[in-house]
Protein: Thioredoxin family protein
Organism: Caulobacter segnis
Amino acid sequence: MSITRRLVAAGLPLAALVPAVAHARPAPDFTAVDADGKTRSLSEFRGKTVVLEWTNEGCPYVRKHYSGNMQGLQQAARADGVVWLTIASSAPGKQGHFADGAAAKAWLNAKGAKPTALLLDPEGKVAAAYKAKTTPHMFVIDRAGQVVYEGAIDDRPTNKVEDITGAKNLVAAALADVKAGRKVATPFATPYGCSVKYKDA
């Protein structure tokens, strides 16, 4: 068994073996259906800053941040005109799969989450295009359509809610740099969390 598989089997965060990628780079376009049944694409938000957030409602690392941290970040970002797309890429039968849009909306409502849209990606096509590894796995795309940040939401790779206090929120920092017209100081941080539940090959 590979080291990566041992880490996942042991329930440890999938983080240490994820390589960095080049930044900035063009953000792959995609099309997906949202929880309201509307077809959405990245290209419809051209000229805007966009956050992509991979999620899995059953993942303890996601639950950590949905204790209020993720919702607050969504609200602050959207107040600044940022488009926030939450993406559920768990395959049917896997942890975190939403059977339909109604189930996804029920979860959003229960959590008080306010993304621009929640995209359903059960085939994992959007996740594969971005090589999404974990939930959460965060991407910031600038107004020119370039990925300028990829990785963890913060610098505390645990599933403990109490560790949010004092952590550096790397997504918030990247968004602040983009808003100010600065080069993102930290363009990559190793993502941590549960593995994205892709469909079996």
Q: What stands out?
A: Confidence is low (pLDDT under 50) at residues 1-12, 14-22. The chain has one domain: 21-195. The radius of gyration is 16 Å.
